Model the fold of this input.
Amino acid sequence: IGLIQAASASGFSAAASPPRYELSATAGQKVSQVLEIYNVGNANEQYTVKTNDWQLSGEKLTFHDELLPNSCREWVKLERHKITVNRGDKRPMRFEVDVPAGTPAQECRFALMVEGTTPAPNQIADNINLPVNGRLAVIVYLAVGGAEPVLTVANLQMSGKTPALKVSNSGTAHGRLQGVLAGTDSSGKAIDFSVSSTPIMAGESRLLPLTPHLG
Done:
């Protein structure tokens, strides 16, 4: 859907734009943004909107209702916690992040969670239904006080049969690698590789797989 993130499940069909936010602010500043929530289903729907903390471990992304240590979610105010969107339509939902005065340079990260309000039946076996709710998450990054990544490529190594770059981030905000890496295969033939755009969190290292351009 381009710049729209979508999620669908039985009884739930929603999309949101933009798919993520990468914002900046100074200490003591209030940042206001608008999330567009779309109903791509065939009936009018009501959704709940809330914040979550999240953690990325390897390729596993987990969300948390409870406040994690150093969470900045208490800075966040939502315009509303429930929103009704007619089928085929969209509605805006405003949120604000009020950064406290004196906040040192750091990255505030949280997720905006959009969930259906009515669980839908999901048949997992004959005569057994397990109600489920669909949801989508829009990730928000807010760099406070000039927080920024400092990325260092340590080496090129193999991850299984896939070449990968080991990248470290010694900065104060997440970063991503972008671009194409030029190389040669075992026969000396030139080949280009795309670098994974998976985020590297501040203080972390990550192996980023390289995908060859096969022509």
Observations:
- The radius of gyration is 20 Å.
- The mean pLDDT is 88.
- The CA atoms of residues 44 and 193 lie 44 Å apart.
